[in-house]
Amino acid sequence: MTLPNKTLSIAILSGKGGVGKTNIALNLSYCLFKAGHPLLLMDCDIGLANLDVLLGIAPEKTIQDLVDEDMPLQEIVLPLARGFDLLPAASGVPELLELDDDARDHLFERLRPLFSRYDFAFMDLGAGISPTVLSFAAMSHVRVVVVTPEPTSLTDSYALIKVLATQHGLREFHVVVNMAESPAEEREAFHRLNATCERFLGFSVTYLGGIALDKHVPDAVRKQSPLMKLSPTSDAARDIMAVAVKLAKLREARLPELAQEQALRPLTQPHKNIHKTSPDATGLGIQENE
Ligand SMILES: Nc1ncnc2c1ncn2[C@@H]1O[C@H](COP(=O)(O)OP(=O)(O)OP(=O)(O)O)[C@@H](O)[C@H]1O
Ligand SMILES: [Mg+2]
């Protein structure tokens, strides 16, 4: 008999790179692990891994071994603490940046049984709209889109949401605004993205919270240790904690629904009906049809 699923899988994604995904994935994971949730943190930035660097570790085995060889999962998963596991990715392996369809399917099949052991499975994805990113995002229960107030971040996030909505029929997105200089700037960034999604895609996105621009974040990166551990009372740590609390509540509320699902949802075939674009009307600097 298989037990009902209890894992909430969460993909951390962004249109533009360098917006804080890896730091957010690591520190949200750390908070939820500390709150007593068994948790898997997976470096899905295949070929350009970063989580190992933020943690100051050099894993011997990586997700590449899962793709290339049928190595047992337990040899690859790295326990950071009891109940806090890391699935590392390989760095500097260009051929891994984009997996072909068969390699991707094989990887997903191998990951499925692993995921179900945890309360949360976080996937730190690469930036942009590569097929691997889109597949992981589509198979997760929750998609957290990280944006900054920069116009380029907002336009690229909108493009990412649009591709996921049109190709995979997804309409639920949670937004974190990172590195704003004030709460007003955070709200303004969210409002612009949300208004564009409402107008051109016909659905709203959900605000999960803002994370302050805080020099403690790069300090923690330099010291290769999680911000929540080094500076738990910093502004950014306080904000990340608030997002973690929301995610814990979201999981709690969805447990009955999750029990009917798999930890990684089956991948639906991408739809091909991507909208044609026309002169800019979005106000985000994007060419778009209404
Ligand atoms: N709230 C913050 N305040 C200040 N600096 C931040 C904050 N969040 C992230 N940073 C800085 O931004 C940089 C990029 O962060 P990070 O590597 O987490 O981004 P990313 O989205 O994962 O990038 P990539 O797309 O390359 O994977 C880091 O140098 C980090 O220190
Ligand atoms: Mg990253």
UniProtKB/TrEMBL annotation:
Annotated GO CC locations: cytoplasmic side of plasma membrane; cytosol
Keyword Metal-binding: no
Pfam family name, one: AAA_31
Disordered: region residues: 266-290
InterPro entries documented for this protein: AAA_dom, FlhG, MinD_FleN, P-loop_NTPase, ParA/MinD_ATPase
Swiss-Prot/TrEMBL keywords: ATP-binding, Cell projection, Cilium, Flagellum, Nucleotide-binding
GO biological process: negative regulation of cell division
One function term, GO molecular function aspect: ATP hydrolysis activity
Domain AAA, chain residue ranges per copy: 10-156
Name of the molecule in the record: Putative flagellar synthesis regulator FleN
